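Retry 2 of 3 after timeout on previous attempt. Resubmitting structure tokens to design endpoint.
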């Protein structure tokens, strides 16, 4: 004989539905409760068996007892009304009630408060499909029939025209051949439900074929549901395995006539005694489907809230959740109960454990869009608890490896999170959402998460990945597409905020150089676009890698075609003076800053080649067209460049290498003869060495007129120097003719 202890069978025959299970057979008290209109199998400890009859005579004894009660003319009418109300309330639930009753019967020795079915009340739901339900269990074989009851009441002359009443009065019956076969095959109870009419079979088949086996995740004993219709058999089965004290992985499988399927689930379940009633077990559960890799994921659709079996309450989440709240007697809706607060506390503890183990995406997609409404329903309070637990639990991963509360997350866009290093404290402290969850930004905003501020966006971009060309180009793309758009375009170019943000972008180390390393725009060394072939090897500077240049060229070409003037303007402001392309920039932004740090000994060793380089990078000039140098802090860009050159560049004089600002032209260069005599005794001023005393390698290939024009440009004087002293212009005009030590 097969073990049917955890199995239920639904078998559709030509004229009836047979429901068989292998749980505990009906006891005497069970028979009494199913006959009563106000008792349930959950209350067997409160049922009194006062019948002085053996098991075979129990049905007759109950019937006689009820007939005695019906001597009261109002009793049958009252019971009939109650029965009709019960059938109406339980409409559409006959399958669930039969499943619940079977699950209860399988709970060997369980406390009555753990039972979830009700053979007395819920069993009446079968009147939706039948007028004469039969029960065959152990020594008991009986049925209920409104037709037979009406005849009996008339026969006893209790009523002339009694109302319809199915339950309360049982009638003996004999099991047919098929029922006997089922009872001998291991089933302990068989319920036969003859069809009310021809359409009933179709209703039953539709309900059974549409049965969602998710209830098996929460059934306490039931593990197999066998459905036989029209020579077809479908079997729903659950296989369980343990992962921990409260976690288990289960497999729901369905074997049908044409195909078989199986889904894996992870179930968290928690059970505890009620604080004020140790015999009362409070249970809560959360279940998720699993991927083939074993990851918990949201359910594809809303799942009704379960109290072991589905109710008609919407849970509002994409997971199966259960809490053993009290239910209305028709089991469709939750109602207030004595232990609601304790159940909610148990659920919150369980839910915190769930959040530790499921992926954050699963938690946010499953629960993050829950909508809880005001109200006193236990389920409304539970939904608010779910929301509060989500808000208070640090389960959302951020870049750097930490987990934070949803409202603490900083959101980003324009691919910032894809290019940041995750090993820096600055990035870690920013609590930036990990890239793989970026599509959940709208859900996180419900918790108060906000997008990162523009100044922080630019600041954090300085911690970009840059160890390879690929990483650099990706980070550079974020700088261009995300960084530039955060620079205010309406500000004037000298606006402090604008320049502050631009300087932040210049500090992003995403520029791949010819040395195969990344650097910032505002690094220690100047950056040139392309290193010329005649670039001196003694002059340090970085140049962009050819691949980096191509990336920039493509960007600029695309930006011009897109007619995005504002972006191009910001781009040019960003790189202007930082990526050098012209010889004049090489001269003033590379060479001069470098030689300005030379000591006199370095000028003595390297000064001549520095002068040659200055000549090479300077435009051709004519001496007569070059005016004397006049210091003017408020002058033009050209005047400022000349003043810069005069201070930084040293020239060979009769007193060694001196700054051009302290040099004069002697008679050899066409200066006044008096200069030769006068400056011979002036220690800190000097005359440029005559051209014929310059080294041959300098004079070779150059002309004296070239040098003369250059000397004039860099600040050598052929006349007394005019110095700006910055005094009251109304009194002195701001200028002073240099006369130190009697100088002209």
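Retry 2 succeeded. Sequence:
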């Amino acid at each position: 004989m097969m073990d049917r202890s955890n199995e239920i069978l639904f078998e559709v025959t030509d004229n009836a539905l047979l429901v068989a299970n292998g749980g505990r057979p009906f006891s005497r008290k069970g028979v009494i409760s199913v006959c009563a209109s106000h008792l349930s199998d959950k209350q067997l400890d409160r049922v009194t068996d006062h019948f002085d009859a053996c098991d075979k005579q129990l049905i007759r004894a109950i019937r006689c007892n009820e007939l005695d009660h019906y001597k009261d003319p109002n009793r049958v009418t009252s019971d009939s009304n109650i029965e009709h109300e019960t059938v109406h309330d339980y409409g559409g639930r006959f399958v669930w009630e039969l499943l619940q009753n079977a699950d209860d019967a399988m709970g060997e020795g369980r406390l009555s408060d753990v039972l979830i079915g009700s053979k007395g009340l819920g069993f009446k739901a079968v009147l939706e499909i039948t007028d004469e339900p039969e029960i065959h269990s152990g020594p008991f074989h009986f049925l209920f029939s409104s037709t037979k009851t009406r005849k009996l009441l008339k026969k006893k002359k209790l009523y002339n025209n009694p109302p319809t009443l199915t339950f309360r009065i049982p009638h003996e019956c004999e099991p047919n051949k098929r029922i006997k076969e089922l009872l001998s095959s291991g089933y302990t109870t068989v319920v036969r439900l003859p069809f009310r009419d021809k359409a009933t079979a179709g209703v039953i088949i539709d309900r059974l074929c549409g049965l969602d086996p998710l209830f098996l995740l929460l059934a306490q004993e039931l593990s197999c549901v066998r459905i036989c219709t029209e020579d077809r058999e479908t079997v729903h089965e659950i296989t369980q395995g343990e992962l921990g004290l409260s976690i288990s992985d289960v497999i729901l499988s369905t074997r049908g006539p044409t195909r078989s399927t199986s889904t894996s689930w992870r179930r968290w379940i928690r059970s505890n005694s009620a604080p004020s009633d140790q015999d009362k077990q409070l249970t809560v559960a959360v279940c998720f489907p699993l991927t083939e890799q074993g990851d918990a994921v949201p359910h594809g659709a809303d799942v009704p809230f379960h109290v072991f079996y589905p109710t008609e309450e919407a849970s509002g989440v994409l997971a199966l959740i259960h809490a053993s709240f009290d239910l209305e007697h028709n089991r469709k809706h939750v109602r207030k109960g004595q232990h609601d607060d304790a159940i909610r506390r148990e659920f919150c503890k369980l839910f915190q454990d769930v959040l530790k183990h499921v992926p954050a995406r699963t938690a946010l997609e499953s629960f993050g869009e829950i909508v809880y409404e005001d109200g006193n329903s236990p389920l409304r309070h539970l939904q608010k608890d779910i929301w509060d637990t989500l808000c208070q639990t640090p389960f959302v991963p951020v870049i750097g490896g930490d987990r934070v509360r949803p409202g603490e997350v900083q959101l980003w866009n324009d691919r910032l999170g894809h290019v940041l290093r995750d090993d820096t404290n600055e990035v870690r402290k920013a609590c930036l959402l990990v890239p793989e969850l970026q599509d959940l930004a709208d859900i996180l905003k419900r918790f108060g998460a906000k997008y990162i501020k523009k100044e922080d966006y630019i600041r954090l971009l300085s911690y970009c990945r840059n160890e390879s060309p690929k990483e650099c180009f990706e980070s550079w793309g974020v700088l261009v597409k995300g960084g530039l758009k955060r620079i205010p375009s309406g500000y004037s170019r000298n606006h402090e905020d604008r320049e502050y943000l631009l300087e932040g972008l210049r500090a992003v180390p995403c520029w791949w150089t010819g040395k195969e390393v990344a650097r910032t725009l505002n690094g220690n060394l100047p950056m040139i676009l392309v290193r010329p072939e005649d670039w001196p090897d003694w002059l340090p500077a970085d140049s962009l890698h050819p691949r980096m240049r191509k990336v920039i060229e493509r960007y600029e070409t695309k930006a011009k075609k897109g007619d995005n003037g504002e972006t191009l303007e910001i781009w040019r402001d960003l790189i202007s003076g930082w990526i050098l392309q012209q010889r004049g920039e090489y001269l003033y932004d590379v060479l001069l800053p470098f030689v300005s740090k030379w000591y006199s000994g370095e000028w003595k060793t390297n000064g001549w080649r520095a002068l040659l380089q200055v000549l090479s990078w300077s435009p051709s000039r004519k001496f007569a067209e070059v005016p004397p140098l006049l210091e003017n802090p408020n002058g033009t860009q050209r005047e400022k460049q000349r003043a810069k050159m005069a201070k930084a560049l040293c020239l060979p004089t009769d007193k060694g290498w001196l700054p051009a600002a302290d040099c004069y032209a002697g008679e050899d260069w066409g200066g006044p003869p008096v200069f030769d005599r006068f400056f011979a005794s002036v220690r800190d001023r000097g005359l440029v060495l005559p051209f014929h005393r310059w080294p041959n390698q300098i004079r070779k290939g150059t002309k004296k007129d070239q040098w003369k024009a250059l000397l004039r440009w860099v600040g050598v004087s052929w006349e007394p120097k005019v110095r700006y002293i910055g005094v009251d212009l109304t009194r002195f005009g701001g200028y002073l003719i240099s006369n130190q030590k009697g100088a002209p």
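Attempt log closed. Confidence is low (pLDDT under 50) at residues 40-44, 110-120, 729-744.
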